[in-house]
Amino acid sequence: MTELATPPDWRILLVDDEPTQRLIMARLLKRAGYDVETASNGKEALEKIEAGDFQLMITDWEMPEMDGIALCSALRSSQTKGYIYTILLTARDAIEHVVTGLQAGADDYLTKPVVEPELIARLSTGKRIVTLERSLRNANEENRRLSITDPLTGAYNRRYLMEQLPREIERGARYGRQLSVIMCDVDHFKKINDTYGHLVGDEVLKWFVQQLNDGVRACDWVARYGGEEFVIVLPETGVANAATAAEHLREQISKTPFESGGNRLTVTASFGVSGWSGNVPVGATLDALIAKCDAGVYASKAAGRNRVTVEPLS
């Protein structure tokens, strides 16, 4: 997750088509401790917003090419970088003008000529609102992360798997793309718990997920299916390549000893691989893929464990 921390240096975008007014306002804002950048119209302002990171904006109403009302409206309809608190400046002071500005997306409205203490006070209010908005966004992102993450291992949880894998299947069907899934189960995990205790068992699972994450591509993702069983989803990957990836993981895990608290264990896992390499087969569903992978894991364990079995979806 990208952290949206409250910025130590507040950047403000000043938008005004009148050079003298821009210069005066920029000096005022810099004296107040703001990092100021300027634009001469709404179009230029949007370009700078897209390229930079601003928390506050002061914009004049009347400007060529794109005025302040159009700028506020465009900003609110396309804003993706975090909230920018916007103050609209104008000589118009009729109530209908105030309503028009606020409805367009301005947060505050200030009439000219600008009184410095009032402007600074309104910017302070804006800073409080931006700080609260960013804190709320961080909290929401953290809640979302926790809702889809296994708390022990940091892998995605079963809920995420059940939500996201059908989307991967649908994407493959729609665009004719390959998809493979690997299921793996830690061998003799109950014996590890019984011999070394559940705390060591937990550490083994965390280590195991780290081995999986280290051995797959950035576009692949790992989810905990349950207990000591994990699923790896490999988008745009045929079954043969997925089997190769599973074999690489199996070998890497078996030859890398787990070490913790004076314990040194050789850990192995059994793998089942399924998916498709050509056109999406009829009956390609989450349940079908999981069932095939599970059958592969079962076959690997029945054959002596620490091996890979492929069960293509046909």
Give a structural overview.
It contains 10 helices and 12 strands. It is 49% helix and 20% strand. The N terminus is likely disordered. The radius of gyration is 28 Å and the shape is elongated. The chain has 2 domains: 137 residues, Rossmann fold (3-Layer(aba) Sandwich), CATH 3.40.50.2300; 153 residues, Reverse transcriptase/Diguanylate cyclase domain (Alpha-Beta Plaits). Strand 11, helix 10 and strand 12 form a beta-alpha-beta unit. The strands form 3 sheets. It has a 5-stranded parallel sheet, with helices on both faces. The chain has a 5-stranded mixed sheet with strand order 7-8-6-11-12, with helices on both faces. It has 314 residues and is of the alpha/beta class. It starts with 10 loop residues before the first strand and ends with a strand. Helix 2 runs parallel beside helix 3 and helix 8 crosses helix 9.
Brief write-up:
With 314 residues, the protein is an alpha/beta fold. It has helices at 19-31, 42-51, 68-78, 95-104, 116-147, 158-175, 189-196, 198-215, 239-255, 286-302; strands spanning 11-15, 35-39, 56-60, 85-90, 108-111, 179-186, 221-226, 229-235, 258-260, 263-265, 269-276, 308-310.
Which helices and strands appear, and what pairs or packs with what?
Layout: E1 11-15, H1 19-31, E2 35-39, H2 42-51, E3 56-60, H3 68-78, E4 85-90, H4 95-104, E5 108-111, H5 116-147, H6 158-175, E6 179-186, H7 189-196, H8 198-215, E7 221-226, E8 229-235, H9 239-255, E9 258-260, E10 263-265, E11 269-276, H10 286-302, E12 308-310
Parallel strand pairs: 1-2, 1-3, 3-4, 4-5, 11-12
Antiparallel strand pairs: 6-8, 6-11, 7-8, 9-10
Helix pairs in contact: 2-3, 7-8, 8-9
